[in-house]
Amino acid sequence: MKAVITTISRRDVLCSAGAAAVFFTSLARMPAAAGEQRGRSPAFELAYRRLLGESEPLADGSVTLELPDIPENGNTVPFRIEVANPMTFDAPEASIKTVYLLSSGNPQPMVGAFHFTKHSGRASVAGRMRLARSQDVLALAQRGDGKFLVAVRQVEVTIGGCGN
Question: What is the pTM of this model?
Answer without folding.
Answer: 0.71
